[in-house]
Design brief:
Blueprint: E1 13-17, E2 20-23, H1 24-38, H2 47-69, H3 77-90, H4 98-107, H5 112-133, H6 141-159, H7 166-195, E3 199-201
Antiparallel strand pairs: 1-2, 1-3
């Protein structure tokens, strides 16, 4: 348990990743941020969502360790600002309506600076994953054709949409299959990082009846 300022709740450690501690306040902040990005109410996260948020915090710390040893350009201020605008547009808050925007951030106990920092981290982690995993992925023509015939065409026909030719949609299918493969490789990479790391958790979810380790 860490000391706190007068009037603050005492913070406590809920996880440690290779000696780096994750505090209860970090966890609560992550839960609220994920609810904010997803458009969910700030105070209605269920135990499964909270546990998933902590798992992602652990994964982020494992990947952050990889960032320190990687050589790639960090997200620019312009890219971070664009990401924040994208989040803002989901709430249909006009660019000139700063009062409504601040009220929304306050509801989730976020500041603009905190939002920018989290957006920057998200972008940098995505860059790390792409730099590490995307070069290892190769999507061949048969895979693209198979997706076109077995997945895309049935979806288009069901929706009554116009059917594009295989040649026209090949770039989009290749990117989709590449991203799917990158996601699969990321799961394996994180499993390997976890296996080679010292990770300890101690937390209690509402209604769980105790602590988990």
């Amino acid at each position: 348990v860490l000391p706190a300022r007068a009037g603050d709740l005492l913070d406590r450690i809920v996880a440690a990743v290779n000696g780096h501690v994750i505090l209860q306040s970090d966890w609560e902040d992550a839960v609220r941020y994920e609810a904010f990005v997803a458009g969910r109410p700030a105070d209605q996260s269920n135990p499964e969502e909270r546990k998933a948020a902590l798992d992602r915090l652990i994964d982020q710390e494992l990947l952050r360790e990889q960032i320190r040893s990687a050589d790639f350009p960090a997200a620019t201020d312009e890219e971070v600002a664009a990401r924040v605008r994208e989040i803002r547009e989901r709430y249909s808050v006009a660019p000139d309506n700063q009062v409504a925007w601040q009220a929304l951030l306050t509801r989730y106990r976020l500041t603009e600076n905190e939002l920018s920092q989290r957006a920057a981290l998200q972008l940098n982690l995505m860059r790390l994953v792409d730099a590490r995993l995307r070069p290892t992925v190769s999507i061949d023509a048969p895979s693209i054709e198979s997706y076109y015939n077995q997945e895309l065409l049935p979806q288009l026909r069901q929706a009554g949409a116009k059917e594009g030719s295989l040649a026209d949609v090949t770039p989009k299918i290749r990117e989709l299959l590449t991203q799917q493969k990158v996601n699969e490789l990321l799961v394996s990479w994180l499993q390997n990082l976890r296996a080679g790391s010292e990770i300890r958790t101690t937390f209690a979810l509402p209604g769980s009846g105790g602590e988990a380790r």
